[in-house]
Amino acid sequence: MPGARGTRRGFTVAEALVSGLLLVLILGLLLNVMVPVFRSWLRSDRRGQAQDQCALVVARLREEIRAAHPESVAAISDPVPAVLWVSSLDPQGRVMYDPYNNDMLWQRRSAMYLEPESGRVLFVETPDVDLQPSTPPGPVSRLDNPAETSWFVPVSAPRARVVARNIAVFQVAWPDGTPPGPLDVRVESEVDGERSELITALVPLQSPAPGQPASPSPVP
After folding, report:
1. Domain contains 130
2. How confident is the model at residue 17, as a pLDDT?
3. Range of the domain at 129
4. Res. 69: pLDDT tops 90
5. For the chain, how are helix, strand and coil distributed in percent, rounded to 5?
6. Number of domains in the chain
7. Is residue 123 part of a domain?
């Protein structure tokens, strides 16, 4: 109708300011909630990564130590933290061990060690000259010195296989200083300031009682 005033109008300056302030307030509240949640998620994720790295070290070491004669296991701290052993695992990962005669049908020297400058745990085994069946089959004591450590020279990847990364502490020791018994293992990892620690005990090949057969230690 002529002369009728429209019902639509634009925002006044005051209304625009109020709307803007409300939007800023809502965004601020969301940030106050979301930022701590995001930071907590990041910390949890980093802690989970650290836990995973510790678990990788223990899982690989458990698989190896279960096939190692206890008299062959040696832990050293110089030149790097390391554990060395003679394993009865053949190239297919089978425990080549005669429980009735306590004989290792396959023998190879292996080591797992921490590379402090990189935080990596590495695995290395002896050259092909030692990667062979024990002929004739015999107990680990038939080696010149089963706990010998002079053969071990730390090397970096790719000559050594990377087991885990971001490792800060790698400690392996017999509780009483000498075998037999469970082997104490402590691994600590740090990922962007978040740390995780894993402490466990691993059991090598069980030496038999006199007149009794031995058997490889079960994997927990």
Report:
1. yes
2. 78
3. 44-202
4. no
5. 25, 30, 40
6. 1
7. yes
